[in-house]
Design goal:
Heat Shock Protein 90; 18 helices; Ribosomal Protein S5, domain 2; eight-stranded mixed β-sheet; about 20% strand; 22 strands; formyl-coa transferase, domain 3; alpha+beta
Length: about 625
């Protein structure tokens, strides 16, 4: 029988290993940035072309490598960080497995130029699909410059699975931000297709957060500094009122390495219990300094997952530290039952003379006199009693109260309740638009539902969902027609954004113009809005952009129809009347009328029921 098992060739084994480490261009960026950090670089530049598909280049001023080290760095499991197995539990660097460069070289064309500070000339190496094409001395500055070109050029199937340039660029920005946030003492720059996206000078953590997230983040940060025997906790959390609907600003670092941990995330969110609005997430930028022997980071090739020796204790410390900081900086409400505001010193009362209390008594009041005789002069009472306690009216001739109802026949009640006549055809919902318009009788229930009458019973409408449906269909029509009118602002509304948000908004700009948004300035760090749709208000702009960021987090749809539909849903949801809004009866009936003029009045844009009906039989069952 012929042997079936054979060893894989090195280039095939490298390509298989590369599939674990190099999933997309962002994976290459992460590994190369961490190598520069380990090389003690103080200035790092990242250059990207076509979202990393054509070029990823990292230039640093680190220690550099000798000719021998530069050659060995591309061999599998070649590393300077580990000499024995015990070293895996005493790691102080980012890269240590020796897989990154070998995996990258297996699926791309790599060019490395490097030089140490004590060498006169450097080394240049060119590798294509794990095969060394060139290695020779070269003139270069101290540090390293590595270029990764045509990623997955030899695996077309993997390249076809990459997303659009915008999606891949966002993943690259995510990885860049994580590394830059973990090392604020290092200067970072990022360029994409010749455009500067980030220029982050060396600073401390607070300035680095502001540099990445925008100047508005500065007023949002609450510092945390807690030192224990098990872990030292430092960083910042965001104030509850600035919590967002998306999870884009949650960062955990363990020994300056970014990690993902749903368990620790729960510890932070539980500390915010009772302070956050529904479906919002707090921002946090937290670094946990812990002894390397107490953690295991070698459980995943990307090293973003981690195991703690005493996970429950770290959970309790983290939760208590966040709660303490929120209370220390008076973010959480405090109830002090022993304190009275009347005892607070007042500048106006300082050195003022005490006044004796006075009591006003109506000496002419006699409860035993008749109503005409015991009439009290209103001038003898303080003014605030006049509005709250009106004088008692006479009950004489009480039959006159019903004078206006003598001619009111039962037929008139019946005519108001029965909105439909026998001649009016009914639609599928059991009522028609004409009947609703003829009798504009409605009221609000809990300022959330519009209740109006039908011939067969009651119609109960969710006002927010109904208005969302109305706006959604109106926006879809505006996308097809000429641009909608906009209301011009007296002073432009200025929004400070980061590069991540700018990528989303730049792709939506044309469609935002179509529905009534005008932009005076549209740059990567600042957007000035000079006009907004007529149905929109300035206070809703921030909520709208949070909604857009949430809905387009995974990228912009390639289909123009899907893009417009998602955009219309976002705008309609943000600008629709909210629950708790008190409406006049005219406004209530206008919503009812417009709703049943829609093509799909039964479902909201998010596919939820808009209204329900209750017949007289339903009431009979309730009252049995």
């Amino acid at each position: 029988m012929k042997n079936a098992i054979q060893l894989l060739p090195d280039h095939v084994a490298n390509q298989i290993a590369a599939g674990e480490v190099v999933q997309r261009p962002a994976s290459v960026v992460k590994e190369l940035l961490e190598n520069s950090i380990d090389a003690e670089a103080k200035n790092i530049q990242l250059v990207i072309k076509d979202a990393g598909k054509t070029l990823i280049q990292i230039v640093d001023d680190g220690l550099g490598m000798t000719m021998t080290d530069a050659r060995l760095a591309f061999e599998r499991h070649a590393t300077s960080k580990i000499k024995k197995a015990e070293d895996l539990f005493n790691l102080h660097t980012n890269g240590f497995r020796g897989e990154a460069l070998a995996s990258i070289a297996a699926v791309s064309q790599v060019e490395l130029k490097t030089k140490t500070k004590d060498c006169e000339v450097g080394t240049e190496i060119q590798i294509e699909g794990s095969e060394i094409k060139k290695q020779e001395p070269c003139v270069t500055k101290s540090g390293s410059s590595i270029s990764v070109k045509n990623l997955f050029f030899n695996i077309p199937a993997r390249r076809n699975f990459l997303k659009s340039d915008n999606v891949e660029q966002r993943h690259i920005i995510d990885e860049f931000q994580r590394v830059a946030m973990a090392h604020p003492e290092v200067s970072f720059k990022m360029y994409h297709n010749g455009t500067s996206l980030f220029n982050l000078p060396a600073s401390h953590l607070r300035q680095r957060i502001v540099g990445i997230m925008g100047n508005k983040a500065n007023e949002n940060l609450v510092p945390i500094d807690e030192k224990t025997e098990l872990v030292n906790l430092s960083g910042y959390v965001g104030k509850p009122e600035f919590a967002k609907r998306t999870r884009g600003e949650q960062f955990f670092f363990v020994n300056h390495r970014f990690i993902k941990s749903s368990y620790l995330h729960h510890a932070v969110t539980s500390a915010f219990e009772g302070l956050l609005k529904e479906k919002t997430h707090p921002s946090y930028f937290l670094n946990l300094a812990i002894h390397p022997k107490s953690i295991d980071i070698n459980i995943h090739p990307t090293k973003t997952e981690i195991k703690f020796e005493d996970e429950h204790a770290i959970y309790s410390i983290l939760r208590a530290a966040v709660k303490h900081s929120l209370g220390q900086f008076q973010i959480t409400p405090v109830l002090d039952f022993d304190h009275s505001s009347d005892l607070d010193p007042s500048y106006n009362r300082y050195k003022s003379e005490a006044k004796n209390p006075t009591i006003e008594v109506d000496r002419s009041f006699n409860p035993f006199k008749t109503e005409g005789e015991s009439e009290v002069k209103s001038s003898q009472f303080p003014s605030h009693f006049k509005s709250n306690h009106p004088t008692k009216k006479s009950t004489k001739n009480w039959e006159d109260l019903f004078e206006d109802t003598k001619d009111f026949q039962s037929e008139s009640i019946e005519s108001q309740i029965n909105l439909e006549s026998e001649n009016n055809p009914q639609n599928l919902m059991g009522f028609d638009e004409e009947s609703l318009q003829k009798e504009p009788t409605s009221f609000q229930l809990q300022n959330k539902y519009i209740v109006t009458t039908l011939k067969s019973g009651l119609l109960i409408i969710d006002q927010h969902r109904a208005h969302s449906r109305i706006l959604f269909e109106d926006l879809i029509n505006k996308f097809k027609d000429k641009p909608a009118l906009s209301q011009q602002l007296m002073f432009p509304l200025i929004l400070e954004i980061n590069a991540y948000d700018f990528q989303i908004l730049s792709e939506l700009k044309v469609h935002l113009n179509q529905v009534g948004f005008d932009f005076k300035k549209f740059e990567s760090t600042e957007i000035q809005i000079s006009g907004i749709p007529v149905f929109f208000s300035e206070s809703q702009i921030g909520s709208l952009f949070d909604e857009l960021k949430s809905n387009f987090k995974e990228g912009i749809p390639s289909s123009e129809i899907n893009l417009r539909e998602i955009l219309a849903k976002s705008i309609a949801k943000t600008s629709a009347i909210k629950a708790g809004k008190k409406l006049k009866q005219e406004e209530q009936m206008e919503i009812v009328s417009q709703l049943f003029s829609c093509a799909e009045p039964t479902k909201s844009p998010s596919n939820k029921r808009i209204f329900a009906t209750m017949s007289s039989e339903d009431f009979d069952k309730k009252l049995m």
